[in-house]
Write a structure and sequence with these properties.
This protein is of the alpha/beta class. The chain has a single domain (about 1-325), classed as Aminopeptidase (3-Layer(aba) Sandwich). Helix content is about 45%, strand content about 10%. It has helices at about 15, 25-35, 40-50, 90-95, 100-120, 140-145, 185-195, 215-230, 235-245, 250-255, 270-280, 285-295, 310-330, and strands spanning about 1-5, 55, 125-135, 155, 160, 200, 210, 300-305. It has a six-stranded mixed beta sheet, sandwiched between helices. A two-stranded parallel sheet has the order 5-7. α3 (about 40-50) packs parallel to α13. The protein is globular and about 55 Å long.
Length: about 350
């Protein structure tokens, strides 16, 4: 497996050079960054990686400056939300130094390329994100006057990227109920968390989520599988897998998928795939089920409530134990040697 903590705390000093130098802006940046750390997720990541002997990645720039778990471009919204924002939120975008935007975009692209390379290493079948979330809600909930709602001590987030009733971009080409986390993994993880004193509960997040890193991994594997199954031309499958990591809103793909432009290589077959995903039938879901059974990949996004930060190491151990037990079971991902 590859373990990633996309929102692990990172040094404020790494972000300071990208925004205005005024004392007021720098003070606001410090508060902004502090509000958006996933407290304890880095410690949990290291604990899980040590037990699994698995590779682990975490950010250099803090999430409050740039969020690798979002597309570079967010989703158009009247009011920015937790899931609609892009890699740079409205506050950051409005306080950047001149010329900092392109530098951060290059950093973002290079970071995703590094993660993609690590996820493509031989033997990597699972992509695991470790997070923590607010005990009483998100920062957006609090800012917008929402009521406090105590969250579960731990949660598993299962979501498909923007596969709403009206998907846009590459999400048009995914089954609306595609999930990368098998029930057997959820069961093993829940039991392991319980043994370490974390009660697994419901996720507070919607079933249609953003283009997070594990969703990119799953989408790329989906397109590659379609190519192997003859559902897409090999060139198209490879191109779509590339877009899953580089541009989920590619204009040429969108035009071909919606019939606004002719299908030309490397996009042959995308219109029929988009049509089949949009049909009011079970066929898209059944194809997704076949992918889950027939491929050797899985994803996991797991959250720890941030008031349990002091026990982050135990949380990471529990995640590792659940993963190890899952990989030992006869399942769609086969046997594990115990190494990541």
């Amino acid at each position: 497996v590859l373990l990633v903590a996309p929102h692990a705390p990172a040094e404020l000093s790494a972000a300071a050079a990208f925004v205005d130098d005024t004392d007021a802006v720098q003070a606001a940046l410090a508060e902004h960054v502090e509000n958006w750390h996933d407290l304890g997720s880095g410690v949990a990541l290291q604990a899980a990686a040590a037990l699994l002997r698995a590779p682990a990645l975490w950010p250099i720039l803090p999430r409050g400056l740039m969020d690798l778990n979002r597309g570079w471009q967010g989703r158009a919204e009247e009011q920015e939300s937790l899931f609609g924002k892009g890699a740079l939120d409205e506050w950051v975008a409005s306080h950047l130094k001149e010329g900092a935007g392109p530098v951060l975009q290059d950093w973002y692209r290079a970071s995703l390329a590094q993660i993609r390379t690590a996820a493509g290493e031989a033997g990597v079948r699972g992509f695991v994100e470790i997070h923590s979330y607010g005990d009483l809600g998100s920062t957006y909930d609090r800012r917008c006057g929402g009521r406090p709602v105590r969250r579960a001590e731990a949660a598993i987030v299962c979501a498909t990227p923007w596969a709403t009733a009206y998907p846009v971009g590459l999400a048009r080409l995914l089954p609306g109920d595609l999930r990368g986390t098998p029930w057997s993994l959820q069961q093993q993880l829940g039991e392991a968390l319980g043994r370490h004193g974390f009660e697994l509960g419901p996720s507070p997040y919607p079933a249609q989520g953003p283009w997070c890193l594990s969703a990119r991994f799953l989408a790329a594997r989906w397109f590659e599988w379609l190519g192997r199954q003859g559902q897409l031309p090999a060139e198209t499958a490879a191109h779509l897998a590339e877009l899953a990591w580089t541009d989920e809103h590619d204009a040429a793909m969108e035009a071909a998928a919606t019939g606004r432009a002719p299908e030309l290589p490397p996009l042959l077959g995308v219109r029929s795939l988009a049509s089949s995903m949009a049909e009011w039938s079970h066929e898209a879901g059944r194809l997704g089920d076949a992918f889950v059974r027939g491929s050797s990949c899985f994803t996991l996004v797991v959250e720890m409530r941030n008031d349990r930060e002091a026990e982050s190491g135990l949380f990471g151990q529990a995640v590792a134990e659940g993963l190890r037990k899952f990989l030992e079971l006869p399942s769609v991902v086969g046997k594990s040697s115990g190494k990541g």
